[in-house]
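Handout, section B. The chain below has 162 residues.
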Amino acid sequence: MAVVSSHKDTEALTLTTVAEFAADVERVWQLWQDPRQLERWWGPPTWPATFEEHELTVGARSRYYMTGPEGEKSRGWWTITAVDAPHRLELDDGFADENGEPAPGTPMHMTITIEPIADGARMTIDTRFVDLEQLEQMVAMGMEEGLRQAVGQITVLLTERP
């Protein structure tokens, strides 16, 4: 299983990735909740993430960086805007400066839903952009393929004990 679709909608200003896993909803939720598990899949395999701060409560901020193949770092942040464990998570997502503070620019908004299916769980990551320029810029930077690669790493994690 894993990624079953990825769709860019330039009218709705969204990028939607859908994945299915042979695991229950609670187990998939743990992958978002536990920063040590999250950093094992958030980011493409060549850009692994390290979470310096992470808590899934409304108003909390996550700070992380991804390390590239040459050791370069790309920093990001999330502000958690809604939590309905283990089914729904919403957050604002943006780039950060070298100190982990939000960089200038408008964040994207992500909605993650996890729902049961006959043989496991379906996770939908819906990213909403402020305008077409932001959507096209993120796709040009490799967001769509990077997210697909990141989510593709989850299947291996689910075979391990939490």
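Note. The CA atoms of residues 134 and 140 lie 10 Å apart. Compare this with the example in section A.
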